[in-house]
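step: validate -> pass
step: tokenize input -> pass
step: predict -> running
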Amino acid sequence: MTRVLLAEDDHRIASLIKRGLEEHLFEVKHVAEGFQAIKEAVENTYDILILDIILPDIDGFRVSEVLRNQKILIPILIVSALSSPQEKVKGLKAGADDYLSKPFSFDELLARIDAQLRRVEFSRGIVDFQIYAGIELNMKEQCASRDGKQLNLSSRELKLLIFLMKNREKALSRTAIAQAVWNMELNMATNTVDVYINYLRNKLDKPFPVPLIHTIKGTGYMLKHKL
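step: predict -> pass
step: emit ->
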């Protein structure tokens, strides 16, 4: 699951962004102050930081500078009512990767986030996590298909498939899957992972001649075209 750190002091806007992103299967951590954003980004792993400029303690420019000085390479998307060319240049020079002016359409916010996530995936050698071995994820419509056939996945099954697609051809432990998909510790989720892998196999593999989800003895599971 994609983890978003949202630094926004306007709770109404933060609530709208958080709810909208969660509807698109993002996991969102909201903080309202700049120092909280720095602490979260340093101590935890997030896929992107959505950063307001006007924060009650230190501004977003400074937050971005501090993170870059500490070699924290999380993609930073500034979302701010400050929209002059000078302010945008200042934000990008402070280390942000993109700058979106308020007000904005939610579709544009999603597109900007996707662009930053794709950039990171390219740097990791993943050309496109949404297409693999006949599987195609449609993130906008929150659905998936294999060889053109719709899979009719539940929300949780889709989250599981997204995680497997992003980490395809890697052996994934049940612990890693539980933490990524359910945000749960292993002792609470071991059986849940196995149950949902079975649900996903029934829809992703059973109707097709070549299985893609493989059990890795002593480890967990792997999504791979040929083991």
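step: describe -> The chain has a mean pLDDT of 89.
step: cleanup -> pass
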